[in-house]
Design a protein that fits this description.
By secondary structure, the chain is an alpha/beta fold. About 25% of the residues lie in helices and about 25% in strands. The protein has one domain (about 5-235): Glutaconate Coenzyme A-transferase, CATH 3.40.1080. It has helices at about 5-15, 30-40, 70-75, 120, 150-155, 195-200, 215-225, and strands at about 25-30, 50, 55-60, 60-65, 80-85, 90, 95-100, 100-105, 110, 125-130, 140, 165-170, 175, 185, 210. A hairpin with a 2-residue loop joins strand 12 (about 165-170) and strand 13.
């Protein structure tokens, strides 16, 4: 399996985000997280409920249920029965995320998506992030605008008990989000720890870095033949 691509390793890393989640609503945003969630359901987490981001629950390319977004907000998000994987234009050393704008909020240099569901997601249920291009522009000391709530702000707001930041998967490795500092959990095959450090503004905990696992033969078949025969994964990484 020497021809395994970086995108396929990233899919495995995203699938592993959901290990142990059980029967929970999953909302992955982006091609790689979506493929990871679908792979997890087909292998080690068969009870996952996969959302298409709007009103349908999907499985194996077909609709298996209907859950309009209003119901998601009313009955799922407040009870913590959801794991969302969002994008991030900036993430800082405190775990804050920005998808709103770059620069001063009153006069930004670049307007992005806006707050979207960032605040509600991060103070109600498990949240992970997917970053297809790991760089110092993304991993910054302080985000310009807080969309997703980090550890210190959650404590200050009195919602730390419901706050569950999990992991960040990037094209270089996997980061573990923790209140005491962000830890480099693993680097993808062919990536060095020094490369991740050079592309991160703040200091990382490097105490126990492993290598992201490769897909098994079965997982590779599912990725290439069943889930993504058109190789859309390679356009994102």
């Amino acid at each position: 399996m020497s021809d395994i691509t970086r995108a396929e390793v990233a899919i495995i890393a995203c699938a592993e985000l959901f290990r142990g989640d059980g029967e929970i609503l999953v909302s992955p945003m982006g091609a790689i997280p979506s493929l990871g969630a679908r792979l997890a359901r087909l292998t080690f987490e068969p009870d996952l409920l996969l959302s298409d981001g709007e009103a349908c629950l999907i499985a194996d390319g077909r609709t298996e249920g209907w859950l309009p977004f209003r119901k998601v907000l009313d009955t799922v998000v407040p009870h913590g029965k959801r794991h969302v994987v969002m994008g991030a234009n900036q993430i800082d050393r405190h775990g804050n995320q920005n998808i709103s704008a770059i620069g001063d909020h009153a006069r930004p240099k670049k307007q992005l998506l806006g707050m979207r569901g960032g605040p509600g997601n991060t103070v109600n249920h498990r949240t992970s992030y997917w970053v297809p291009r790991h760089s110092r522009r993304v991993f910054v000391d302080e985000v310009d605008i807080v969309s997703g709530v980090g550890f210190a702000r959650a404590r200050q707001a009195g919602v730390a008990g419901f706050h569950d930041l999990h992991r960040v998967v990037t094209n270089l490795g996997v980061l573990d989000l923790r209140p005491g500092g962000i830890r480099l959990l693993s680097v993808h095959p062919g990536v060095s720890v020094d490369e991740v450090v050079a592309n991160t503004t703040f200091e990382l905990d490097l105490a126990d870095v492993t290598e992201t696992r490769l897909p098994t033969s079965e997982e590779l078949h599912l990725i290439r033949v069943v889930l993504d025969p058109k190789s859309l994964r390679d356009k994102e990484v």
